[in-house]
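TICKET: design request
STATUS: open
ATTACHED STRUCTURE:
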């Protein structure tokens, strides 16, 4: 990592570094600004596709969630809770404005071989909550509010009328069952009761997620 301080960069340049060269910036130089800008990116995610193919953006988003751990900023208790809640809530826009528009209406968990007809963005959409820096905590009272926020986001994503988004939320809920079984079971039960008509593979997956049986 170089010593480029992120807070000195104009937004467009900051976004380029975030997606294309994340190792070249000191993201801790102003974590509050980083959180606020990340929220802006998720609230209006189409900007991430400017100058990038879906394949390139898929790779960038994988890096954002995993290798650099930049989404851990959501878990920093030294930052204002309301700012972290807003950023968490903005993930719903990432799904409704990016994934729902640019992912294929196909399931990922049933794939046995690579499907060339599927959008590359289906990959990170499906794995987003698997790679996410938290699946909740059983005993950490300090994380209770944020855990509730993330579960609400997952519940809201289930309402997006897109197969890939629904599958992703179920995937995430399946992992959150480990720490929040009662809440997850309630969310999935309500979804199955009041949600859209599902294909048999997606309904089966929902029932598996309800008990934490997801890969």
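STATUS: resolved
RESOLUTION: sequence designed for all positions
ATTACHED SEQUENCE:
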């Amino acid at each position: 990592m170089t010593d480029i301080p992120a807070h000195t960069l104009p937004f467009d340049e900051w976004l380029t570094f975030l997606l294309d060269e994340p190792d070249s910036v000191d993201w801790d130089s102003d974590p509050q600004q980083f959180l606020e800008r990340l929220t802006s990116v998720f609230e209006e995610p189409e900007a991430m596709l400017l100058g990038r193919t879906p394949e390139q953006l898929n790779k960038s988003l994988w890096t954002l969630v995993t290798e650099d751990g930049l989404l851990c900023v959501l878990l920093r208790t030294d930052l204002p809770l309301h700012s972290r809640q807003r950023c968490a809530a903005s993930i719903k826009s990432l799904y409704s404005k990016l994934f729902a528009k640019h992912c294929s209406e196909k399931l990922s968990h049933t794939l046995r071989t690579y499907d060339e007809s599927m959008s590359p963005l289906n990959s990170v959409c499906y794995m987003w909550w698997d790679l996410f820096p938290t699946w909740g905590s059983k005993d950490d009272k300090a994380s209770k509010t944020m855990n509730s926020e993330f579960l609400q986001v997952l519940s809201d994503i289930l309402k997006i009328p897109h197969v890939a988004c629904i599958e992703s939320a179920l995937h995430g809920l399946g992992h959150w069952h480990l720490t929040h079984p009662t809440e997850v079971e309630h969310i999935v039960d309500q979804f199955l009761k009041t949600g859209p008509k599902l294909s048999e593979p997606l309904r089966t997956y929902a029932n598996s997620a309800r008990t934490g049986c997801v890969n």
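CLOSING REMARK: The chain has a mean pLDDT of 93. Residues 4-104+122-210 form one domain.
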